[in-house]
Amino acid sequence: MTHTPTFHVVTTGRLSSEDLCSILQRIHPYVDAIHIREKEKTAIELYRLIESLQQSAVPLDKLIVNDRVDVAVLSKIWGVQLAYHSLEVEVVKQEFLNLHVGKSVHSLQEGLEAEKQGADFLLYGHIYHTNSKQNLQPRGIHGLETIARSVRVPVIALGGIQPHHVQEVMEAGAHGIAVMSGVFQSPNPFERVKQYQSELLKWSEKR
User: Fold this and answer.
1) Neighbours of 74 (CB within 10 A)
2) 176-179 and 79-82 as β-strands: parallel, antiparallel, unpaired?
3) pLDDT tens-digit series, residues 2-56
4) Mean of the per-residue pLDDT values for the chain?
5) Angle, nearest 10°, between helix axes 140-150 and 108-117?
6) In whole angstroms, what is the distance from residue 29 CA to residue 25 CA?
7) Residue 47, CB half-sphere, CA atoms under 13 Å: how many?
8) Per-residue pLDDT tens over the stretch 148-175
9) Catalytic residues
10) With contact defined as beta carbons under 8 Å apart, do 176 and 8 qualify?
11) CA triplet 171, 130, 186: central angle to 5 degrees?
């Protein structure tokens, strides 16, 4: 079954709110989802960042905040991304029916459990070597193929993905890609986003 690939970007927590707003204002037309992954920010700081993004014309229906269900609900954004330490998927889904809930998973077992609890999509990784996880072995294409084949919810691949990896990742069964440092640590995030989007378009046109 074919699908239109989705392109997620994930913030790194290393940029100022002003720089982040500036970058996201330019790149949001070229991506499908923006994960606000700012672990050092408080709830009020995240809320104000989302307000600033909205004032910069970044659509709320593209925003996903990591972990903070309260901020996601009060900001009226599209979704929340849950980690291993977050509230359980089923608890969030029961209380907030209109909130899209993603779950970060690192194994087939975690993926199956998240699907069972009602996750709308899975973020799976890391696929390739990445500086953010230097001491951990990547899970590779085989692990991605296994989980994508075993669950019915969309699997978004994350971790060390460069533009030249996109075709391989999509062929492995991913529903889309998520990129952190590949975009936000690039000298030119705008051009970099267009490179990823171009590769996703090539894959889509081959189907």
Assistant:
1) 13
2) unpaired
3) 568 999 999 999 999 999 999 999 999 999 999 999 999 999 999 999 999 999 9
4) 95
5) 30
6) 8
7) 9
8) 999 999 999 999 999 999 999 999 999 9
9) 126
10) yes
11) 90
Radius of gyration of the chain (CA): 16
Length of the chain: 207
Distance separating the N- and C-terminal Cα atoms of the chain:
9
Tokens describing residue 177: 């890609």
Q: At 126, is the secondary structure helix, strand, or coil?
A: coil
Residue with tokens 């972990």: 67
Q: Which two three-digit tokens encode residue 135? A: 């001491």
- Helix-strand-coil percent breakdown of the chain, rounded to 5? 50, 15, 35
pTM of the model: 0.96
Under 8 Å between Cβ of 118 and 93: yes
- CA dist., res. 155 & res. 125, Å (int): 10
